[in-house]
Amino acid sequence: DAKTTQPTSMDCAEGRAANLPCNHSTISGNEYVYWYRQIHSQGPQYIIHGLKNNETNEMASLIITEDRKSSTLILPHATLRDTAVYYCIVRPPTGANNLFFGTGTRLTVIP
Amino acid sequence: GAVVSQHPSRVICKSGTSVKIECRSLDFQATTMFWYRQFPKQSLMLMATSNEGSKATYEQGVEKDKFLINHASLTLSTLTVTSAHPEDSSFYICSAHRDPTEAFFGQGTRLTVV
Question: CB burial class (10 A; 0-12, 13-18, 19+) of residue B41?
Answer without folding.
Answer: exposed
